[in-house]
Fold:
Amino acid sequence: MIDGVIFDMDGLMFDTEPIWTRVWAPVLATIGREYPHGLANAVRGTSGASMEAVLGRFVPGADTTYIREAAYAMVHEELRKGAPKKPGLDELLAFLAEQGVPMAVASSSALEVIRMNLANGGVSDYFGELFSGAGMAHPKPEPDIFLNTAQAMGVAPAHTLVLEDSLSGVHAGVAGGFVTVMVPDLVAADDFAREHAACICNDLVEVRDLLASGKLG
Structure:
């Protein structure tokens, strides 16, 4: 039985990952560095110190704090225009609301960006709790953000569904003892996700259908 659902945001609820992919090259160009192959995939799902650690590996010797903050600023400007919702989001939210299942968002993005995307998408009212990993000491792939969210919701991890598109998010959900489902966006499931996730779905419609049929949870 699922007592609550925690949603990631970027790439899971909204099609924002292509925006993140586009910003790295122009941001790095401002400091005279070229985009290193694989950076966008490596930083996907990270934030704060964990993002800077990845940036340090790909752009050694650079000011990783500047790169991170410049990327966030550029993405923020793009998101003001609104980001498309991922297929099945409205259907899944409506189903969960009908069932009286509490919902929350736990994202690596800044809290103001979370609120902006939810408002632009017209889905703010579905969520009782919003958590950002941007300033956390231990962001994804550590489970802290999901554990804090579950505590605020008053639900146990073992009975809480975590929906993620990123590998770091899947690691975080599994580490926290959550029922973790991956809905891949730009990065395919790896061996860890295939072995440890409760299931891997093509889209949020499939998540809704599995919940409705009692096959998930």
Remarks:
- The chain is about 45% helix and 10% strand.
- Strands lie at 4-7, 103-107, 129-132, 160-164, 179-182, 199-200.
- The first strand starts at residue 4 and ends at 7.
